[in-house]
TrEMBL record:
Topology versus the membrane: Single-pass type II membrane protein
This protein's name: 2-phosphoxylose phosphatase 1
Naturally occurring in which organism (per UniProt): Piliocolobus tephrosceles (Ugandan red Colobus)
Quaternary structure annotation from Swiss-Prot or TrEMBL: Interacts with B3GAT3; the interaction increases the 2-phosphoxylose phosphatase activity of PXYLP1 during completion of linkage region formation in a B3GAT3-mediated manner.
Entry similarity comment: Belongs to the histidine acid phosphatase family.
Gene designation per UniProt: PXYLP1
């Protein structure tokens, strides 16, 4: 089934389910589902297409919105890399043929694409922290390499950058025209897809930037935990969370049957197929409108995809309920949140460095941060997802600062655990910055239970 057919399926956001005893719900003549007894069923194809984040019309966004007497002081942007080629291959099948060179007249297109390639080709002598200096600055293989950023991924972040430019530079004048290198903070993991995504966003944000002012720092950990990565209790939470995932999978007989069918098609043991994480490759087929692979034994098909994707959605739902992942997230996200409020605190003191911070990262970076902030209903980070922290100063009371949190352009500030009760207690239109500081310095540890009051103690708590 191609993506057009999949899009037609989107009309049915609440698929017809089969009732007990095998009686179709169609025969019950109910036009509207009862919202109390029947929660809407999540459409796996719809969710997958949202995850693909195929570039289309410019999106509406809430970044940069504040009462007129507030002044934007600093902005901290966390992105997931853009669309990429799969990290895994479905055994004994042909790899999807996707071209990772950048071609201006091919879809998806961006008006700055040619200029981006030209500018990147001038940056080969740029100084990046090792080992980033050995990575290519843009994707360039006629057949994508595993995990390589695609043209779609570049366009997604050129769009992100241009959107942030229109809001933060043109409207709010966050950076002066003669901005200096120390007013940007840029950090990425050591993968070409994250460096290239960061550069694409940066080019959309600061077209034709001066290479001499650009310095990307290398972050060895996907959690961006710098020198605070050793945390035994965090790893214990992760082991328990992985055990929960494993047990949920064992309970899903339809999933096991689907893996068995697919394993027969590609003629490998079921265990080997599962280890190859076929959903990663299948998502690439779906996002790029390439038909699923076939062998002489048959074809992997959309029904297989739906079963695996539905299980993923179910897994995310149970993950929220069981709270093991929350424990992992609070400890996993603490170092990067602590760094971020440190930067914000310096900005509140009038320091003019690091006004714009960009972290180019992965789903496994953004997901724990979202969870730690209490944004449990947030969707799993799609390709080119962006999570933004804005710091604002009240011009009428210059000592007062506020924060806003935005996820993919949606203001989620009052859904965070540190600000969801703000409206009940305060008439202020924005969330006080001290709420976020108190959350990171104290409340994250309170949420873990136990008596720890700092990161080190929480990481080394006995008897967990």
């Amino acid at each position: 089934m191609d993506v057009l057919t999949a899009l037609l399926l989107l009309v049915h956001l609440i698929p017809v389910s089969t009732a007990k005893n095998g009686v179709s719900s169609k025969s019950r003549k109910r036009i509207m589902p009862d919202p109390v007894t029947e929660p809407p069923v999540t459409d796996p194809v719809y969710e997958a297409l949202l995850y693909c984040n195929i570039p289309s019309v410019a999106e509406r966004s809430m970044e940069g919105h504040a009462p007129h007497h507030f002044k934007l002081v600093s902005v901290h942007v966390f992105i997931r890399h853009g669309d990429r080629y799969p990290l895994y291959v479905i055994p004994k099948t042909k790899r999807p043929e996707i071209d990772c060179t950048l071609v201006a007249n091919r879809k998806p297109y961006h008006p700055k694409l040619e200029a981006f390639v030209s500018h990147m080709s001038k940056g080969s002598g740029a100084s990046f922290e090792s080992p980033l200096n050995s990575l290519p600055l843009y994707p360039n293989h006629p057949l994508c390499e595993m995990g390589e950023l695609t043209q779609t991924g570049v366009v997604q972040h050129l769009q992100n950058g241009q959107l942030l430019r229109d809001i933060y530079l043109k409207k709010h004048k966050l950076l002066p025209n003669d901005w200096s290198a120390d007013q940007l903070y840029l950090e990425t993991t050591g993968k070409s897809r994250t460096l290239q995504s960061g550069l694409a966003l940066l080019y959309g944000f600061l077209p034709d930037f001066d290479w001499k002012k650009i310095y990307f720092r290398h972050q060895p950990s996907a959690l961006f935990c710098s020198g605070s990565c050793y945390c035994p209790v965090r790893n214990q939470y992760l082991e328990k969370e992985q055990r929960r995932q494993y047990l949920l999978r064992l309970k899903n007989s339809q999933l096991e049957k689907t893996y068995g069918e697919m394993a027969k098609i590609v003629d490998v043991p079921t265990k080997q197929l599962r280890a190859a994480n076929p959903i990663d490759s299948m998502l690439c087929h779906l996002c790029h409108n390439v038909s699923f692979p076939c062998t002489r034994n048959g074809c992997v098909n959309m029904e297989h995809f739906k079963v695996i994707k539905t299980h993923q959605i179910e897994d995310e739902r149970e993950r929220r309920e069981k709270k093991l992942y929350l424990g992992y997230s609070l400890l996993g996200a603490h170092p990067i949140l602590n760094q971020t409020i440190g930067r914000m605190q310096r900005a509140t003191e009038g320091r003019r460095e690091e006004l714009f911070a960009l972290y180019s990262a992965h789903d496994v970076t953004l997901s724990p941060v979202l969870s730690a902030l209490g944004l449990s209903e947030a969707r799993f980070p799609r390709f080119a997802a962006r999570l933004i922290f804005e710091l604002w100063q009240d011009r009428e009371k210059p000592n007062e600062h506020s924060v806003r949190i935005l996820y993919n352009g949606v203001d989620v500030t009052f859904h965070t655990s540190f600000c969801q009760d703000h409206h009940k207690r305060s008439p202020k239109p924005m969330c006080p910055f001290e709420n976020l500081v108190r959350f990171v310095k104290r409340d994250m540890f309170v949420a873990l239970g136990g008596s720890s009051t700092n990161y080190y103690d929480a990481c080394h708590r006995e008897g967990f």
